[in-house]
Amino acid sequence: MSSTFGTLFRVTTFGESHCKGVGAVVDGCPAGITLEEADIQRQLDRRRPGQSRLTTPRDEKDQVTILSGVERGKTLGTPIGLLVANQDFRPGDYSETDQVPRPSHADYTYQMKYGIRASSGGGRSSARETIGRVAAGAIAEKYLRELCGIEIVAWVSAIGTVDAPAVDMDTLTREQVDASAVRCPDAASAERMEAAILETRDRNDSIGGIVSCVCRQVPVGLGEPVFDKLEACLAGAMLSIPASKGFDIGSGFAGARLFGSQHNDPFVKKGDRLGTLTNNSGGVQGGISNGEPIYFRVAFKPTATIGQTQRTADFSGREVELLARGRHDPCVVPRAVPVVESMAALVLMDLVLQQKMRVTP
Questions:
Q1: How many whole angstroms separate alpha carbon 297 and alpha carbon 295?
Q2: Among the four 46, 126, 305, 357, which has the fewest Cβ within 10 Å?
Q3: pTM of structure
């Protein structure tokens, strides 16, 4: 199913950007986990619109309600229903796009695929769909943190041409990331990034960037050869996020410019296990986690809907000028941080459960 993610820990998201609500159904969550709405709300608050002047002014509180699967603060092992009501929706803002597909948006492809599409806000292609991912990811992350010790931290490492310096991925915290509205832990870079976003917003334009992520304390052995390699699962998850356009892990594309003698990660003794002296592999070798931190990057394009008049064509092919309305982020990257964390949690949760089912000799 196109709206379902995962094998054992399965998440089905539902809802459009301007319908009555959005959410998710989580199936396969183990029973007996302590869970309340506040556990989920923390991540939804980081994702929601209207957080700062860098985001869309759409005023949504994104309050989650647990509909099922939890009783007296414990998961039952049955499907967990999660609902977030849409409150500040304005479908009338999209009347001019009824016959004119927005440039680089999904209006054209959805219409051609289904012969119909949601008439406002992009429907399922809207970033509002990610609410279900974040809510489900918060459940997965709670399990991973409390039962496996896994920590997941993402941050903004680039906005446009502004690149932040490397961070200490062993110690970086979400508190450090959230110290700036742009979610870059380097204060000087954060200031330049915010200026770039605001300057772009004032021109009624948009700008893209990169979210980096590290997953720490991941056990050895996660990942299923050959087609469900850990990095393949992560890549598929990240590239399913709206506006994502690129993924690399470890040394990534830069590693293609190195010699093997430069790129190889020598093994060393680390406590009671082998580890690697360097981590160009990004914590994954042969598609399986090796116990080192897993780190990767996700590239996000500029927001497709902008406040400038654009020359384009309507569905009949007639050349027109389009000035799209609606409320949109000048840059989606700061709000994508919890989405990246959540998708990483969903991947790792699924693979942890698969590994637990494996009988080891």
A1: 7
A2: 357
A3: 0.95
